[in-house]
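To illustrate the input format used throughout this study, we show a single complete record. The first block contains the structure-token representation of the backbone; no residue identities are included at this stage. The design step must infer an amino acid for every position from geometry alone.
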């Protein structure tokens, strides 16, 4: 990992600082990512895509910037946008999870059709994996699809589907080959959420907001060419998407910004005139977390370097989700503690409400619990680290019929 800035790197740094000076006022506020992007966010996203600060390495023919992977460029973009307090771009399931999956295994037609508008935030995707009775044991899903007259006809139910209440499209895992062993019987379909027969029922979480949903399918017709790879390849495709999901959820870039926000909060005098940064136990927590975020960031850069060289990071990659989401929750817990009584008084507000500082931290604190569950729980991540990463013996499985 070479961290020296070359002339082109310094030029990129200067370019982003110039953007901050000339266009910074157009940036949407940080946060608010768990709702449909508004006009301001979409305009900012377009600007970031045009300049190559989002989708930098995605080929131009698919709507990206076509640059070669460069670890330092990625780090400079993240750092400079964070330093200027600019919105770093939409972090959606479409951009972070589906786009890299299509780049790996999508057809040429699928890449040309879906990647550009997804990058620009014009198409919002949701992930239709989990079902009642199939979460950690995802391969047990029962939503069925049968082929009829050039279409898959889908029947079944999904649950915990984030963003489905405002998404345009879903990447759906369903069972198309019921006679094959369970992992080999799945397919991965791209489904328009406006297809007749789809019913979305929002679920309210402990934040008081509807963030995920139940989704019911009754004879939903999906053109057969909207399958990614072939029938029975769904488990393979779903796992590629999950790999990207886990890297996104554990990405330390947003944690760096979070540490800075907490440090600012702690340096301000509270209602009692005291500063939390002067309290040794709180300062100690901040410094420990800051060190862990820094370590996580270096680890992230090392992974980027390995991937840019075409190497498989193996075990190193399996720790990202567990470590990053746990760290995120500990950071928001510190902020809530620093806020004192203000961190306790939470009143659920409407989806469209502009959140004040305390509410933003409280929502993060509650939502971060979900991030330790979604995309594979912390317990499942530990199993993966132990069994696939470290090669430890597999944990005993429950006997059939007794789970
Ligand atoms: C905020 C949030 C957003 C989500 N968004 C989506 C989404 O957009 N799309 C989607 O499809 N799903 C989504 N999910 C669902 C998520 O993927 C599942 O909740 C998760 O995979 C766990 O499945 P489950 O809820 O069925 O729990 P279960 O699998 O029933 O697990 C229950 C408990 O048992 C533990 N456990 C299970 N098996 C083992 C084992 N082998 N070893 C040790 N412990 C085990 C788990 O860790 C957990 O603590 C979301 C969840 C959350 C919280």
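Output of the design step:
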């Amino acid at each position: 990992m070479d961290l020296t800035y070359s002339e082109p790197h310094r030029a990129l740094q200067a370019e982003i600082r110039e953007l901050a000076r000339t266009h910074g006022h157009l940036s949407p506020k940080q946060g608010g990512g768990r709702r449909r992007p508004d006009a301001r966010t979409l305009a900012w996203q377009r600007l970031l895509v045009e300049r190559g600060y989002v989708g930098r390495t995605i080929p131009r023919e698919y709507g990206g910037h076509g640059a070669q992977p460069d670890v330092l460029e990625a780090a400079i973009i993240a750092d400079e946008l964070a330093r200027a307090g600019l919105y770093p771009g939409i972090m959606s399931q479409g951009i972070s999870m589906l786009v890299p999956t299509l780049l790996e295994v999508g057809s040429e037609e699928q890449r040309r059709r879906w990647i550009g508008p997804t990058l620009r935030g014009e198409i919002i995707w949701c992930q239709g994996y989990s079902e009642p009775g199939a979460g950690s044991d995802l391969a047990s899903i029962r939503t069925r699809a049968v082929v009829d007259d050039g279409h898959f006809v889908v029947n079944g139910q999904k649950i915990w589907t984030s963003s489905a209440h405002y998404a345009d499209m879903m990447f759906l895992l369903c069972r198309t080959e019921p006679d094959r062993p369970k992992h080999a019987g799945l397919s991965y379909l791209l489904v328009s959420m406006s297809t007749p027969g789809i019913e979305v029922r929002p679920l309210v979480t402990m934040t008081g907001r509807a963030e995920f949903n139940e989704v019911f399918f009754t004879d939903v017709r999906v053109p057969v060419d909207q399958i990614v790879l072939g029938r029975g390849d769904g488990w393979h495709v779903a796992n590629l998407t999950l790999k990207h999901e886990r890297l996104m959820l554990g990405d330390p870039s947003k944690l760096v910004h979070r540490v800075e926000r907490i440090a600012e909060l702690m340096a301000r005098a509270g209602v009692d005139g005291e500063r939390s940064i002067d309290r040794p136990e709180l300062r100690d927590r901040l410094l420990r977390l800051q060190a862990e975020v820094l370590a996580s960031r270096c680890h992230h850069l090392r992974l980027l370097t390995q991937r840019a060289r075409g190497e498989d990071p193996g075990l190193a990659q399996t720790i990202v989700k567990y470590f990053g989401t746990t760290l995120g929750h500990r950071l928001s817990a510190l902020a809530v503690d620093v806020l004192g009584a203000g961190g306790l008084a939470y009143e659920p507000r409407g989806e469209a409400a502009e959140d004040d500082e305390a509410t933003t931290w409280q929502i993060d604190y509650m939502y971060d619990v979900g991030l330790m569950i979604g995309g594979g729980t912390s317990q499942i991540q530990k199993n993966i680290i132990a069994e696939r990463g470290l090669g430890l013996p597999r944990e005993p499985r429950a006997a059939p019929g007794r789970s």
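Structural context for interpreting the output: The first strand starts at residue 125 and ends at 128. Residues 7-90 form one domain.
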